[in-house]
Amino acid sequence: MIQRLYDWTLSLAQHPHALWALAVVAFIESSVFPIPPDILMIPMIIARPNRAFLIAFVALVASVLGGLLGYAIGAFAFEALGQPILAAMGKTQAMAEFSDRFNDLGFWAVLTAGVTPFPYKVITIMSGWTAMPLGTFIATSILARGLRFFIVAALLWQFGAPVRVFIERRLGLMFTLFIVLLVGAFALVRYI
């Protein structure tokens, strides 16, 4: 099933309204859809490198707007469903402690999920669920998704199709290593 969904998503890159299809995929990927917008972005940019940054911009805007939908799902569905269940189980205090810890690290959680292969939709929903400040969520989402989409666009614009394999196989790992090094550097500065 996932392979068919992947193939269908990839086929949208050839559609005359591919930019709109990218916007829809980027929007719904941020809250419910399992296929990342990169699957559309890469062939679209290879086919039209002069539109690389427009394509990245469309993916960024749609993804952040979709992230707001994920945030709303977390904020409103948790109140309606999750909280009464946790209260009945006597776990309200444990969830309050988790919420505080998540929000203390919220910037890093959103940044990490926004640039790495970790599902961004999980963090968008958790951000709403834990009532992360909306401004922090939006700013970090713009930073993270902008980094991801514009780096992909810049690499494809500069190097074309030969860099595709690197992006598909190793860029997620590179982003993950970058985040680990960045967090490590901040932790080192903080404790020294």
Automatic annotation (TrEMBL):
One Pfam family in the UniProt entry: VTT_dom
GO CC terms, sorted: plasma membrane
Residues forming coiled coils: none
Keyword Cytoplasm on entry: no
Source organism per UniProt: Sulfitobacter alexandrii
Segments forming domain VTT: 39-155
PANTHER family: ALKALINE PHOSPHATASE LIKE PROTEIN, DEDA FAMILY PROTEIN
Keywords assigned: Membrane, Transmembrane, Transmembrane helix
Taxonomic superkingdom: Bacteria
TM helices/strands, residue ranges: 20-40, 52-78, 105-123, 135-159, 171-189
Protein name, entry field: Cytochrome B
